[in-house]
Amino acid sequence: MGSLPTLDAHAHVDARVAGSLDGCGVVLAQTVSLEEADRSISRRESNVCWGVGCHPRLAQAQAAFDPGRYQELLALSPVAGEVGLDTGSRVSMTAQLATFRAVLREIATRPRILSIHSFPDPGPVLELLREIPVVAPILHWWVGRADATTEAVELGCYFSVHSAVARRSIWRTRVPLDRILVESDHGWRDPPDAIPLRIGWVEHLVAQSYGITPAEVRSAAWRNLARIVSLTGTRPLLRPGLLAFLPEA
Questions:
Q1: Which one, of 48, 51, 20, 50, lies nearest residue 241 by Cα?
Q2: What is the pTM of this model?
Q3: pLDDT tens digits along 56-89
Q4: Least buried of 69, 102, 140, 174, by fewest C-beta within 10 Å?
Q5: C-alpha–C-alpha distance, residues 199 and 98, integer Å
Q6: Secondary-structure percent of the chain, ordered helix, strand, coil, rounded to 5
Q7: Helix ranges (DSSP H) in the chain
């Protein structure tokens, strides 16, 4: 696969894990609550950027969300995530919308690499992105129909693809290669060293969809992230192990 390491745009890693995370490739590690973000963001791995998130499915995280604290943590990180809306969540949509609106308003004035949960019905996410436009939002767990996918592309969205999503034929017909990132959606309790293997499998699936090689998928993902970094102005906040491989946008 050449000199580029795997690039995982959306994984969950337990920040309390002891020892090195050197074996997990380059990772944008999403957090699910401000509490998790608070304890994660002080870790200094060269290859891991820790996000600031509030997951729409977690009632406790949603109830504890504080916009002021979110702003403070976001100032320390290039990544905002995991945030978004989940129409299947037991958390009320009123509460989810209040949190997500607060996040988007902050991101609109302080752009970040934004990872958005948009499952299973992406309609409310697109509606809110039309209401509060942000730079280069990344849609995670996207299962939108063809018309919604076309709209998301027109809104400037990128798509973070894991194995379950990569099998959908919509990628071949609706999403240009220059909007694709690859992710593992790695589980919080899973061993981080497994991330490169999962990313390799997703690269293989995406390559089949586009009729290219896995190496070309990896190169495209790095180029696309470089463009997002340029658009959001987040380069000064990135970790050295990511910067070492990030091409010029």
A1: 48
A2: 0.96
A3: 999 999 999 999 999 999 999 999 999 999 999 9
A4: 69
A5: 33
A6: 45, 15, 40
A7: 34-40, 59-63, 67-74, 93-109, 123-131, 146-154, 163-166, 170-174, 195-210, 214-232, 240-243
